[in-house]
Amino acid sequence: MTTYRFAVSVMPKEGILDPQGRAVEGSLGHMDLDGIRDVRVGRRVELSVEAVDESAARGVVDRLAGELLANPLIESWSVETLGPVGAAS
Amino acid sequence: MVFPGSNCDRDALHAARLAGMEAELLWHEDPDLRGSDLVVLPGGFAYGDYLRAGALARFSPVMGALGDHAARGGLVLGICNGFQVLAEAGLVPGALLRNASLRFEHGWVRLFVARHDTPFTRSVPDGAELRLPIAHGDGCYFLPESELDALEARGGVLFRYAHPEGNPNGSARDIAGVLNEQGNVCGLMPHPERASEALLGSDDGMLLFRSLLESAATRLAGMAA
């Protein structure tokens, strides 16, 4: 078994009201920053999964992301593989 | 139904008993609904509302039994956080987003009752609006535009925010409460159990609890016949 590290990004879907993004945009005027537009606020979840290979580990992460970490009605998600973190045993 | 973090369970119990129901508290880890005709999912912050409001409660041990209860036509009322749990579990359509104001909104609202032929509203007099309190941070009802049309077409919108207070959270089409397709599961953001006695500022919430008592009694009589 090997342990793999993943990062799951969860973002509000296009067209979904993102009041957190609006709030961040609203504060830009106080910061002397120009040119920033379309701020959207999501969530990043990092986790380790122990499995026989990377594809099995990825399957577990996909299920977790689709069934719990994201609500597919309002959020989209993507998975980034950060690589194996433990030695094979 | 008590989840870790529920905080309106005793209010709901009080309102149910006041309406004349035999009621008891159920714990979310016990999958036995003890023959309940009606299950109320109360307000609060189940599992601290971590991740998304209602998201973690959806995987509580009792949720399978609750789904079976609903599929058999058993009555389910989800109030505020209970509505969020029902939506996350797919037992009612839609999702509850952060309030458009980004603030926790609380106060009194007025509800237009769209239908009087449901188990939840049969005792509400025609034309009556309900005055109920709200208290939530994530109450902005969302459903994709095309599905909203379908929801309205099948009579799935049961409550709408009405003037003068209006829509407190940015909900699509002023929707405050919805029904599942079978019409036996209802979720709403306002708190009928907190408007159970005139002393509390309104007893309009009792109209829903009395409706549910009558509906359960009628259903039992139908089964016995």
Structural summary, described in words:
The complex is a heterodimer of chains A (89) and B (225). By secondary structure, chain A is α+β, with helices and mostly antiparallel strands. Chain A has 2 helices and 3 strands. Chain A has helices at 19-27, 54-69, and strands spanning 2-12, 43-51, 75-84. Chain A has a 3-stranded antiparallel sheet, with helices on one face. Chain A is elongated. The N and C termini of chain A lie close together (6 Å). Chain B contains 5 helices and 9 strands; from the N terminus they run αβαβαββββαβββα. Chain B has helices at 9-18, 63-71, 81-88, 145-153, 205-224; strands at residues 38-41, 75-79, 95-97, 105-113, 129-136, 140-142, 157-162, 175-179, 185-188. By secondary structure, chain B is of the alpha+beta class. The mean pLDDT of chain B is 96. The interface between A and B is medium-sized, with 11 and 19 residues.
The average pLDDT score of chain A comes to: 92
Number of E-state strands of chain A: 3
Mean pLDDT of chain B: 96
Estimate the strand proportion of chain B: 15-25%
Radius of gyration of chain B: 16 Å
In short:
The complex is a heterodimer of chains A (89) and B (225). Chain A has 89 residues and is an alpha+beta fold.
Keywords:
heterodimer, A: 89 residues, alpha+beta, three-stranded antiparallel sheet, 3 strands, 34% strand, elongated, B: 225 residues, seven-stranded mixed sheet, two-stranded antiparallel ribbon, 5 helices, 9 strands, 21% strand
Which helices and strands occur, and which strands form pairs?
The complex is a heterodimer of chains A (89) and B (225).
Chain A: E1 2-12, H1 19-27, E2 43-51, H2 54-69, E3 75-84
Antiparallel strand pairs in A: 1-2, 1-3
Chain B: H1 9-18, E1 38-41, H2 63-71, E2 75-79, H3 81-88, E3 95-97, E4 105-113, E5 129-136, E6 140-142, H4 145-153, E7 157-162, E8 175-179, E9 185-188, H5 205-224
Parallel strand pairs in B: 1-2, 2-9
Antiparallel strand pairs in B: 3-6, 4-5, 4-7, 7-8, 8-9
